[in-house]
Amino acid sequence: MLTHRGPSDSWERASDSRQALRPRAQEAPCHARAVEGVRRPREQHVQGGEGGPAQGGRLRLPRPAQPQARLPQAVDHAHQRRRAPQRPDLRPAHPRAVAGGRRGRSQEPRRPGRDRRRDVLGDRDRRQGRAGRQGLIVVGGRSAAAQQEFEGVRNGRPSCVWTTDLVVLGENRPVDISSPSNPRIKQVRALLDRRRERARSGLFVAEGEDLVAAAAAAGWVAEDLLVAAGSEPELREHGIDLAGATIVAPALLASASSLGSGTRVLGVYRQRFADAAAGPRCLHLHGVRDPGNVGTAIRAAHALGASSIAIGPGTADPHGPKAVRASMGSLFALPLARADGPAELPGLTVALALRSGEVLRADAAWLAPALADASGGGVSLLIGAERDGLPDDVVAACDRVAHLPIGGAESLNAAMAATVALYELARER
């Protein structure tokens, strides 16, 4: 028989009449605190996606890869890098995980706003040694005093300091200029590119160890001397004094040079012009626009014993890079002067014709007969451009007119004609 027992809705089968009327002990409720009148904390449900077993589950967010307090600055400013500043770099969030993330010695929040002076050692420099990273050559080891200090017997006091005597040969000095925006690099480029800048500043540039050595041999002192890093031994072999020189990154110095192959040294010099052209043998260049011809004529004049070079109107700048290279150092050994015409030249003035069939004066002769009676006094040779020659008013103002014997060729190069004329003049002398 089934009997119903109280509010628990429990049923039991009574075996007899006594068991059917006996009450049954009830279990305690699952939530005892609810019976005592204390409410349970309400659970917060998060709206999940529609469908699926994870609907309403907890949302877990991943932790950041690094502590956010260590994040670097978002922008690496150009003025805080040692390499050439082009523009600020956008830095990744975690530069240590990216290859080359610290290239150019970028600044981080824990680093100073500018680089430490090169002559001040930091903790890492003291631990690892600075000689190897600066390219210094160390010869020898510990001296006797250093050995005693290491063994702890110096002056009877214990010591644990390791000292090493360094002999620095000084061949590899630290780089002083590595930025293309350096004012001295900009000045070199302006002097090489613009004649107006050379005229304004009164400076010019000599490129290469041969020209710099020739300037030093002639007694010229450079206003500024830029040397490529690592080329000091070769430059000393050429007799170049590197006292006061500035070490420049080789690639930067090559980019500033006008030479296609670059150079190891650049010298900035002050232009020199004499008050007047000097005799007894003077070469006057009038309207020679090719700087290569100007430099070659200066070189020939120096080799054949000319006393000075007179630069006339319309002539290329003798201090331009092409003219300086073509002179091969003769620019530093031969005085230069400015002259507008024959009236400012010393001695007998002789106009030289360069073209075959050129209309000459009636008294024109070959060069040798024109110079025959000029052996006692000074002579000034006037040479014009190969195509145009000398202006008519200049030819009319000269004392003599001469021409070179030209066969089948139409004309002679201005520098070649100057070389032949100077040779004839030297032979007559």
3D structure, described in words:
Residues 1-16, 33-45, 105-128 have a biased composition (Basic and acidic residues). By secondary structure, this protein is an alpha/beta fold. Among the domains are: 132-170, no CATH class; 183-270, 60s Ribosomal Protein L30, Chain: A (2-Layer Sandwich); 281-428, Alpha/beta knot (3-Layer(aba) Sandwich). The chain is built from 14 helices and 15 strands. It has helices at residues 17-20, 32-36, 123-128, 144-151, 183-193, 195-201, 209-217, 232-237, 250-256, 291-303, 321-327, 367-370, 392-397, 414-428; strands at residues 2-5, 10-13, 75-76, 89-90, 203-207, 224-228, 246-248, 265-270, 281-285, 308-311, 336-338, 348-353, 365-366, 379-383, 400-403. The protein has a seven-stranded parallel sheet with strand order 11-10-9-14-12-15-13. A four-stranded mixed sheet has the order 5-8-6-7, sandwiched between helices. Strands 1-2 form a two-stranded antiparallel ribbon. β9, α10 and β10 (308-311) form a beta-alpha-beta unit. The longest helix has 15 residues, at 414-428. The protein is elongated and about 130 Å long. The protein starts with a strand and ends with a helix. 28% of the residues are buried. Mean pLDDT is 73; it is low at 6-17, 97-102, 106-114 and 123-170.
